């Protein structure tokens, strides 16, 4: 191919067009959906969140099902779980129950419920105890502090 003025072409890299970078934010033109001028067009401008009604608040909150209480619940253990784990006269606290592996954590406390029977004398302190559990422990000769 002979070299003439009409056959000269620029290289491919030289022909690359600059991308339009005016408004950013996708295919929304130069203002990217914010309109022309004014407070709401600028970055950090008020978004109108101060004057929201109850309906708008309800529409914007997540629609999650159910209810999760913020109240901390204690670890629960039944009297039936004590069977064969303790000897008569043992003192039971949160730490002892944790070491024996009867509860996973003691951060929110431990509550002993009266499900099951108990025949050994136990001294329980530092735990919450239900009324039925307290009666059964005291009937077996134990003590609840």
From TrEMBL:
Transmembrane segments: none annotated. GO terms for cellular component: large ribosomal subunit. The keyword Ribonucleoprotein applies. One of its GO terms (molecular function) is rRNA binding. Keywords: Ribonucleoprotein, Ribosomal protein, RNA-binding, rRNA-binding. The keyword Transcription does not apply. GO terms for biological process: translation. Residues 14-27 have a biased composition (Basic residues). It holds the Pfam family Ribosomal_L27A. Residues 1-56 are annotated as: Disordered. Binds to the 23S rRNA. HAMAP family: Ribosomal_uL15. This is Large ribosomal subunit protein uL15. It comes from Candidatus Kuenenbacteria bacterium CG08_land_8_20_14_0_20_37_23.
């Amino acid at each position: 191919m002979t070299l003439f003025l009409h056959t000269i072409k620029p290289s491919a890299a030289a022909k690359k067009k600059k991308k339009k970078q005016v408004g950013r934010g996708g295919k929304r033109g130069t203002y990217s959906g914010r309109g022309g001028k004014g407070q709401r067009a600028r970055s950090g401008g008020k978004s109108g969140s101060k004057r929201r009604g109850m309906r708008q608040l309800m529409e914007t909150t997540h629609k999650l099902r159910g209810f999760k209480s913020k109240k901390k619940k204690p670890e629960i253990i039944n009297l039936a779980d004590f069977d064969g784990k303790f000897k008569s006269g043992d003192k039971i606290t949160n730490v002892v129950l944790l070491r024996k592996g009867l509860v996973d954590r003691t951060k929110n406390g431990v509550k002993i419920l009266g499900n099951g029977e108990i025949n050994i004398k136990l001294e329980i302190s530092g735990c919450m105890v239900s009324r039925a559990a307290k009666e059964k422990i005291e009937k077996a000769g134990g003590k609840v502090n």
